[in-house]
Amino acid sequence: MKEMKKTLDWDIETIPVRVKENVLTNWVAISRNDTGAILSVRSQKYKPFKNKDLHRLVERIKSKTNYELVGYQDFRKGRRVIAYLKLNSENLPKGLSKLSIGKSETNDFLLIGNAHDGSSALFLAYTNVLLRCENQFTLPMRLFGKEHRESIHFTEDSIEKVIRDFHEEREKIYELMNGWRQQVVPEGLIDRLICHLFPNGDFDKMPIEIREKRAELMRSIELETNELGSNFWGLFNGVTHYTTPRSSGSLFGNPYSVSSRLNAKAIEFLTSESHAA
To answer: Which of 24, 52, 126, 195 is spaced 20 to 30 A from 87 at the CA atom?
Structure first.
């Protein structure tokens, strides 16, 4: 897994956009202040949320929750940055779900992310890691709703609302996952899920790459359902076992990754199937 940084030791700055010595007054370039690399070109209406602003927001949330700051990661050469806050049993509000699903202990993370290229609003995401096997899944939570069209400020009330909303979303996820432990996988569901995640028509005409992905996913599903039971929870863990990045250079909890999109598709599909059962 890619190593976390204790802080983001660089920031962004806006510089004029020039074309043949002429300044384009309606545009600015967003650049790194350490390397000078241009991250994007935005209109004058774009309001940047700098890394120092992200640091300040993280510290304010920390002070209200006592969550542990694990660190920061940047990707796409700094165009996107994420802060990782870890929940633990001591800082969970009373009455909320413990850090376990069934007998499986978990780690939960609140992710706070920002983009310097206009590709995303300031966002929250939730990452759950199953300690038994390090399976993980990340779900974006658009609780901020803060676009870069105006200066972004947070009142004390707005931060407290974000924290409450985050816990409400987390509770819904735990309720869903614990319910899945009781639901037996019906005949044919595994094949339908695999085809839903990797659709490609007739088997005879299927590209070898899709066949291999389907076969690898099936192996992960068999591994996890043998361990956790032939239920929706075991089936979903088969998907997260397949999608969890395990290389030293992979980005932890990346809500934009193909893996996160596959996990989201699996959750949507299995939720629909569980309600129909």
So the answer is: 52
